[in-house]
Specification:
Blueprint lengths: L8 H20 L3 H28 L1
Length: 60
């Protein structure tokens, strides 16, 4: 799944979980460059989740 600005919180959480599992696997395989790329993607998703949560609180 690629980054889009209009994903739901559920989609983001699912993608985050998948990427975390993938990152652990790459770490075990000692593929450090790929781990760095996945970590970057995880950070972006985390930022998007925080933004969505803030928006939901503001709307409540």
């Amino acid at each position: 799944m690629y980054y889009t600005p209009f994903r739901t919180m559920s989609q983001l959480q699912s993608e985050l979980s998948r990427l975390q599992s993938e990152m652990l696997e790459k770490h075990r395989e000692r593929k450090h460059e790929e781990v760095e790329n996945i970590a970057y993607r995880i950070d972006r998703i985390h930022t998007e989740l925080v933004t969505l949560r803030s928006q939901q609180r503001a709307e409540s």
